[in-house]
UniProtKB/TrEMBL annotation:
This is Asparagine synthetase domain-containing protein. Pfam families: Asn_synthase. Residues 493-518 are annotated as: Disordered. InterPro entries: Asn_synthase, Rossmann-like_a/b/a_fold. It comes from Nonomuraea composti. It comes from the Bacteria. Residues 216-452 form the Asparagine synthetase domain.
Length: 599
């Protein structure tokens, strides 16, 4: 993991006291043990660029800070081709990154198309501040160590568990938008933004379809080509679904050595299908069976306060403790890959949630995304949410709107925050997050991508050996459309007929009986812990929630909306000062009982 901080003075040089403050507060903002942090600095006229990492050496390219053509460049994330560092901050470069650059009198930072490697910015009367960690930027803008929260901005954290805006929990700190560039020259800041690509109409001929899928395939192949020379195989977590199948086909087509692992029992469709994929592609496949334990009517879980502290420390108050964040392990350069963000190739998760794709239904999806659980919130919080939704509701193309909302917020805010946990362990290649791949995907018609014809064609193009391997879960959408009755046909805006070879029957998801989760069925003991924290801090939450509605939420012995309770708990602990600060100690585990132990 890399952390960057850029400072640009408005009128004079940066004082040693400010630089010393940056060196002292990095331990709060960098969620790794202090003894593994190492840093580099560059200082010019009125400008400083500081960088830190927990990478054990300088083997990863490009280095933390490099000098090219009279300026210094830093890279947070990775490039498909590290030699392209000299082209930064060009946002058409391949990779998953944000760029940092400086020279005498000039400081800049830029985001890629999905801003999954974020840039945060703020200013004071004396300084412009940009950084890759929001808390670090905030602390550098404060005269003391007190944190000043933007409580109204936290309303979307309570609703959804992540930010649906460019706001942060910290007053005066904002996230830079996708494909944007912030530059400070001689104390004056400018921000430029490149709009997301507008999708072309769906191709109507087989030749044009092949050409469009071919461009996407080339962008994907470029992301994994450098992995051929790593000296060890990539480990791919493979399932029976769509997204990891694309990656298996991609690595196969690029001739990148890889092996696969699947978690589950031999009888589960994930294992059955993953084994078939590995056999067809001639790669090693390992099945990791779940531990066979005696049935239990209760489990012991970590106290929520410890879980919230680690989530706030890692995700800076921009991801709910409802989510399970990858815990810290020493940094490793071993190549790993998973299907994270594969929804980008399928028009985004918000579109995939829809069964009715009519205009009014899609409009309701946009509204609900921003204004969920309105009864719980104050009038001011609801108006703030409606104001955030307004420009998105004004857009005419609903499928494109939800597609772009996914990129801006579900990837650019939720994943950008949550993936900080895994980045502490290494910098895995994520083809679906690659700048060129996202650009190529967004250029394709949303309804065509949503039909899944694009990814099915892509898989056959990369690995025709997988033609007869079934899919786990639901059948491909373009097949569902041909099987729909005329009354249901309106749900599918893509053509019902296709010349693609018919895929084999799918394997429905097996219900294993292991669906119970202590997070979603918290039981009375855990509910009580959540309740006491939230109700005990209603004064801090009062600007955004109605106290009586919060009390009603927790009125039953087991809370009715566990995710919402966790979001409230996370924001409550943030506002009452859990972090920054020392990790809570001597917290007892909580016993959570199964709702029906005999089931």
């Amino acid at each position: 993991m890399r952390v960057y901080l850029g400072l640009a003075a408005k009128r004079q040089d940066i004082s040693p006291a400010i630089l010393n403050r940056a060196r002292s507060v990095i331990e709060w903002a960098f969620p790794v043990p202090p003894d593994v942090i190492r840093g580099r600095e560059w200082h010019g006229r009125g400008v400083s660029l500081l960088a830190w990492t927990n990478e054990p050496d300088d083997a990863r390219q490009p280095p933390l800070i490099t000098e090219h053509g009279g300026r210094v460049i830093g890279l947070n994330g990775h490039l498909a081709d590290p030699s392209e560092v000299t082209a930064l901050p060009d946002d058409s470069v391949g990779g998953c990154f944000s760029a940092w650059f400086a020279r005498d009198g000039e400081l800049g930072a830029s985001t890629a198309i999905n801003r999954v490697c974020p840039v945060f910015h703020a200013e004071t009367p004396e300084l412009h501040i940009v950084g890759s960690r929001a808390l670090l930027v905030h602390l550098m803008g404060r005269p003391d160590e007190r944190v000043d929260f933007d409580v109204l901005a936290l309303q979307s954290m309570v609703r959804q568990g992540f930010f649906l805006s460019d706001e942060t929990p910290y007053k005066g700190v904002s996230a830079l938008r996708p494909s944007s560039r912030l530059v400070v020259r001689d104390g004056v800041r400018t921000v430029t933004e490149t709009p997301l690509p507008q999708a072309a109409p769906a191709p109507t001929s087989a030749r044009h379809k092949r050409a469009a899928v071919g461009e996407l395939a080339e962008a994907l192949l470029a992301t994994v080509a450098p992995l051929r020379d790593l000296g060890e195989p990539v480990n791919l977590a493979l399932t029976g679904g769509r997204d990891t199948r694309i990656l298996a086909a991609l690595l196969h087509a690029a001739r990148v050595p890889f092996r696969t692992t699947t978690n589950g029992l031999d009888t589960h469709p994930d294992v059955i299908i993953a084994r078939m994929i590995a056999e067809r592609l001639g790669v090693e496949h390992t099945v990791i069976a779940p531990p066979q334990t005696a049935a239990k009517d209760a489990v012991l879980v970590e106290h929520p306060l410890g879980r919230a502290w680690e989530t706030l420390r890692t995700c800076e108050g921009m991801t709910s403790a409802y989510e399970t964040i990858v815990s810290y392990l020493p940094y490793s350069g071993k190549p790993t890959m998973s299907g994270q963000s594969g929804e980008t190739l399928r028009a985004g998760s918000l579109n995939l949630l829809q069964t009715d794709l009519g205009d009014q239904a899609l409009r309701r999806r946009i509204e609900t995304t921003f204004t969920k659980d309105a009864k719980l919130f104050t009038a001011e919080a609801n108006e703030h949410a409606r104001e955030l939704a307004r420009p998105w509701l004004a857009r005419e193309n609903r499928l494109e709107t939800l597609d772009h909302l996914y990129i801006w917020y579900k990837v650019g805010r939720w994943q950008a925050s949550a993936r900080a946990g895994s980045l502490r362990r290494g910098d895995p290649v994520r083809p679906f997050l690659d700048n060129r791949v996202v650009r190529a995907a967004l250029s394709l018609d949303q309804s065509w991508r949503l039909s899944e014809e694009v990814i099915y064609t892509l898989i056959l193009r990369l690995a025709p050996e997988l033609r007869d391997v079934p899919i786990e879960g639901k059948q491909w959408r373009f097949v569902q459309s041909t099987e729909s009755t005329p009354a249901k046909r309106r749900r599918f805006p893509w053509p019902a007929r296709t010349r693609l070879p018919g895929p084999p029957p799918h394997l429905p998801t097996t219900k294993t009986g292991g669906g119970w989760s202590w997070r979603t069925s918290p039981g009375p003991a855990l509910t009580d812990v959540l309740r006491r924290q939230v109700l005990g801090s209603l004064d801090a939450l009062a600007p955004i929630v109605e106290p009586d509605e919060v009390r009603a939420l927790f009125a039953d012995p087991v809370v009715r909306k566990p995710a919402l309770a966790w979001h409230l708990y996370t924001v409550s602990t943030l506002l009452t000062g859990l972090y920054p600060g020392k990790a809570p100690e001597d917290l007892p585990p909580i016993t959570v009982s199964r709702p029906d132990p005999g089931r």
